[in-house]
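Side project, low priority. Logging it here so it doesn't get lost.
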Amino acid sequence: MQITNQAGDQHEVPTEGGKGNQYLLPFILVTCLFFLWGMAHNLDSVLIPHLKKACELNNRQSTLIDTSVFFAYFIMAIPAGMLIKRFGYKNSIITGLLVFASRSIFVCSSD
C-alpha cells in the first residue's frame, strides 16, 4: 500500500500480513536490553555509599563516580553511533553485551 504525503512523495507502508512484523523481535530484544542496562546502571546509586566507606572517599570524590558514569554516555555516543553505522545494530548490541560482561567479570573477580 502506498501513501502520498503533502509534498507529493510516495512511501510504501507495510500491510497487516506483510513486512510489518519483521522488526518485532529486534524491538523486543532492544527493549529488554534497555531495561537490563538500566537495572545495572541503577546499581550505581546503591554501590556509591559502600565505595565511599570502603575506599574512604569524601563527598566530592563519591560524586565524581556518578558523574563519570553520565560523562561516559556523553563521550561514547558518537563512537557507538559509528559502530552501529559500520557493523549494524545486531553486531553492535552483541559487542556491547560482550564488553559489558567482560567488565562485570573483571569487577567481580577483583574482590
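Brief comment: Residues 30 and 95 are 14 Å apart (CA to CA).
Revisit when time allows.
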